[in-house]
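quick one, 447 residues, struct below
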Amino acid sequence: MRVWIKAPLAILAKEAGGGLVIEGGRIVELLPAGATPAVAVDETFDASQHVVLPGLVNAHHHMFQTLTRAHPKAINKELFPWLQALFPIWSRHVNPDNLRLATRLALTELLMSGCTTVSDHQYLYPPGLDAAMDIQAEEAARLGMRMTLTRGSLNLTEAEEGNAPREAVQDIDTILADCERVLSRYHDKSEGAMLRVALAPCAPFNVSKRLMIETAQMAEKYDCRLHTHLAETLDEVDYCMEKFSCRPVDYLEEVGWMNSRVWLAHGIHFNDDEIKRLGHACVGVCHCPTSNMVLASGKCRTLELEAAGSPIGLGVDGSASNDNSNLMESVRHALMINRLRYKASEITHFDALRWASEGSARLLGRDDVGTLAVGKQADLALYRLDELRFSGAGDPLAALVLCGAHAADRVMIKGEWRVVDAMPIGIDVGKLRREHGAAARAFVEAL
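---
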C-alpha cells in the first residue's frame, strides 16, 4: 500500500505542506504545499483537519506504578519518603497478572497521547516476577508499539545501606543472568525494530558498584544502551557524598558509565563542571518535568546540558509520581517549567516537541524514528483542534502545546493505524479500566 497523508492543517516538517507519502512502513516522500505524489497512491487520507507530528517517544517510565496513583500513603511527599511509603507495598503486591494490566494500561495511555515508541524502567522484581520483560514484550506487541525493554534491577536493601525492601531485590548473579537472557531473546538492533533492550540498575542508593560495573561491561558486549536515575534530588547528592565520598557524576565516571551508551533519568542537580563533563561524554538526560514538579525535586538545566553536548529527551516517569502516562501533557509541562528558568524566547514549543520526539529517540539509540523525513519509519501522531480548548488558536503547532492537547485523533506505527477516532485499535478501554481498577484496589487496601 502506498498512502498519502494529504495536505495537513500543520506538520512538524519543513516544506511538507502537501503532506507525506508512506509505503512499506516508511516515509517515501514529503510534498510541498500544492504538490501531488510522484507515483500514484493506493489510498489518500485527508489530513486537512489534523496537525501531524512524528510519533512521540517516551524515554523514562515505571509502568507498574499505575497501580498506586495518588496513593494515600504517598501523596504530598518528596522522593525518599515517597519511596519509603511505596516500596513495601510494591514489593508485596506487584505480581505477573497486575504487572500485565499495569503495562497494558500505561502503553494504552501513551499510545492515545500520540506516543509510538516507549521505554519502561522496570526495576522491581519481587518473587514470582521473573518474566516481567516477557510480559512487557507481549503487551507491546499486542498494541503494535515499539518498545525498549529496559531491564532494571535492585540489589541493595535497607540493611545494606540501600533503600529497597528485602522482597524487592535480587542477587547480582540472578540479575546478570536474566539481563543476558533478555538481550539474547529480544534485542533487535536492525532498522525499524519493534523491540530493543537496555540495561538499567535503578539508582546509586539501591544498587552496588559491582552491579553498575558488570552491567556496563555487558552493555558493551551486546551493544545496548544503559540507563539509571542520577542526581534527581539533593538527598541523592548527599547520599553519594556520604557513601562514596564523591558527587553523583564522579560516581558515574568511577563505575564506567561516562559514555554515549548512557542516558540518565532526571539529571537535575549538576554543577557547571559536571554538565561540561557529561556533554563531552555525550551522556543523555531524560527530562521528567511532571514528576519533578510533583515530588518537588527541582528543575533540570536542559539548555546548558544540550549546549554542552548531552542529548535531551522527555519522559512521563512513574505513574505514581506523575500521576499519568500522557507524554503530550508532559510536553506542555516541559515548556512551562523551563520558562521558569529561561527566557520565554529561549524555550519554545518547538524545543519541547523536539525533546519528546527526536531527542528521546536519540536517548534510546534510534535514528529511524522521531522525525518526519524520507527514509524514516512511518510513525505519526495526528491531532485535531476542534475541542473548545483550541478555539481561537492562530498557530496550530503552538496550540498543541500552549492550549494543552492531550489526546491524538489518529496514531500510525510502521505504516499501520493504531489509533482511529481517538481510540486504540483492539483494546476495550472500558474493560481495561475496570480490570486495572480492580487490581489496584489491593494496593490501597494494603493500608
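The radius of gyration is 21 Å.
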